[in-house]
Amino acid sequence: MAVVGQRSRQLMAFHGPAAASQHAILAAASSVVPYYTGAVVPQHSASPVTPSAPDRPIGYGAFGVVWSVTDPRDGKRVALKKMPNVFQNLISCKRVYRELKMLCHFKHDNVLSAQDILQPPHIDFFQEIYVVTELMQSDLHKIIVSPQPLTADHVKVFLYQILRGLKYLHSTRVLHRDIKPGNLLVNSNCCLKICDFGLARVVEPDDSVNMTQEVVTQYYRAPEILMGTRHYSYAVDLWSVGCIFAELLSRRILFQAQTPIQQLDLITDLLGTPARDDMRTACDAARQHVMRQKHKPPTLAALYTLSNHATHEAVHLMCRLLVFDPAKRIAAAEALAHPYLDEGRLRYHSCMCKCCYNTPTGRNYTGQFEPDTQGAFSFSFENDLTSISRVKEKLYKTILEQQACTRVPLCINPTSASYKSFASSQCAQPSELPPSPHVWE
Ligand SMILES: [Zn+2]
């Protein structure tokens, strides 16, 4: 079943000279709040574990840089995300605060969450935030473009976990708004976690409130966003899942367009010209663009040619996800009830999940295969974020509160071998980011 590297590469060697831990970026902090610059890492408080693998970058996103590092307290490899220049403007620091709150709130096996946040320096020197999460070896994008075989079972178990994670996220009232293969992390056991909440936000219950269209990487962007709707909801994430489902089967991007207009045209090539009512939330100019074109019949039968694994059940579910009108698109909970996912659920809960376990008389299955959140995610913390200094203060307090009292806090070791390259790692340049939506009017 494994499609990514074996765990053995990951296992730590618990021997070797203790001094080697000086080379690691992550260090156990002393009880005194340190300054990043010039902080001397106290060797006695660090665990004597020596990392066998060097710290290295594993990803660069729009809002952060992720490195693979060793937790000095137990020698486990973890992912360290650096969020630089947090307090440049009010929008960016509110976004980071929101992402951090989410990472600390989420508790679900198919959603990435924060294991730790590094001890911040004195508030006067507080500019960057470092979050520790579980390290996953790969992501769906890397797997799709690799030569590794993807069986029908792989597709089912991946799709099951994507929807299972999304059902949970949506139960917390969070829209992810950037579901794409690169944001679906996968480990060597094929366990999958949704990550990167840089664009996520809570659902907007008020229809009259305008929401940004600067969301979702273009290939996975729902038609309502492409058509300039002012208000959208959970369904945008489900559209992205439909695109990823097709991509898992064919190993090609389903709608790979150069521009947002072409993106919309590719969608209507497959689904046919939408009925006027299916475009009711679109802006006038976008609706006129679609109506001006020659009437297109749907060509959904093409979905059967995606792969040998594109069975009737697979295509049926895909057609429920790739629905033009967001109000008619299937929801995550409903999609999970589709018969196509029965085998994925069985496989996941037979040998991959943490919610079921073996007993001498057989497997003890959980009562809730696809759990929702236990407690609602409160967004009231956003209410009085009126200035950068206010956000900074609240963020600082939140981080200190989050630090687990039972474990030694972590900090960055500026004397480590790779500190220089870690400190200079940059986020993606604007030119590398997906194109903005088309401006219709
Ligand atoms: Zn289970």
Topology:
Layout: E1 26-28, E2 56-60, E3 65-70, E4 77-83, H1 90-105, E5 114-117, E6 129-134, E7 138-139, H2 140-145, H3 152-171, E8 174-175, E9 184-186, E10 192-194, E11 201-202, H4 223-226, H5 235-250, H6 260-271, H7 284-292, H8 312-321, H9 332-336, H10 342-352, E12 357-359, E13 362-364, H11 388-402, E14 410-412, H12 419-424
Antiparallel strand pairs: 1-14, 2-3, 3-4, 4-6, 5-6, 7-9, 8-11, 9-10, 12-13
Helix pairs in contact: 1-11, 3-5, 3-10, 5-8
The structure holds zinc ion.
The site of zinc ion has 5 residues, from loops.
In the CATH hierarchy, what is the architecture of the largest domain at level 2? Orthogonal Bundle
What is the N-to-C succession of helices and strands?
A: EEEEHEEEHHEEEEHHHHHHHEEHEH
Strand content: 5-15%
CATH homologous superfamily heading of the largest domain = Transferase(Phosphotransferase) domain 1
Q: What is the domain tally?
A: 2
CATH class placement of the largest domain: Mainly Alpha
Please report the total strand number as a whole number: 14
- Name the strands of the widest sheet in spatial order: 2-3-4-6-5
From the spread of the alpha carbons, the general shape counts as: globular
CATH topology name of the largest domain, in short, is Transferase(Phosphotransferase), domain 1
Q: Fraction of residues in helices?
A: 25-40%
Q: Structural class, judged by helices and strands?
A: alpha+beta
Return the average pLDDT rounded to an integer: 85
Low-confidence regions: 2-20, 31-49
Report on the biggest sheet.
Answer: 5 strands, antiparallel
- Cα radius of gyration in angstroms: 23 Å
Small ligands present? zinc ion
Helix count, DSSP H or I runs of 4 or more residues: 12
Q: Between the first and last Cα atoms, what is the distance in angstroms?
A: 50 Å
Oligomer: single chain
